Amino acid sequence: MKLSDTDLRILRELARDGRQTNADLAEKVGLSASQCWQRLRRLEKSGVIKGYGARVDQEAVGLPETVLLELALERNEGVGVEAVCETLSRFPEVLEVRMTSGDFDIFAKLAVSGTRGYERFLRERLHRIKGIRQSRSSFSLRCFKNEISVVP
Hints:
- By secondary structure, this protein is an alpha+beta fold.
- It contains five helices and four strands; from the N terminus they run αααβαββαβ.
- It has helices at residues 5-16, 22-29, 33-45, 81-89, 115-124, and strands at residues 65-73, 94-99, 106-112, 132-139.
- Helix 1 packs across helix 2 and helix 2 packs across helix 3 (33-45).
- The protein is elongated.
- It starts with a helix and ends in a 13-residue tail after the last strand.
């Protein structure tokens, strides 16, 4: 789907504030409310807009620590990268899973209660997944930017 300049303005505005009313959005992008609504529906139906959601403060819900996890898989274990990614994606602590290039096959971002919460994740979840050859994890000390999308 080819995006017009107006579509991109709509997307930028929604990325900045997804809760604004259609009337406010229409005014900001220079459309009537009806035209804006039609474009929004088209962007949603085509899959450009994947959904709407709240950005939750992880600390407020008892998961203040972010762990960045990299995994390398055994090549001869018969376990595919996609299968491990799908397994990781089912765990509630996991915020993001990506198949990657380089020394590691998978990157995952987790929200945990602290070192004990991460130890529990390792023991009860990660170490039960077959085919993981190596893992490397880092606790994030501070986040400087955390956007959910970028619109050119």
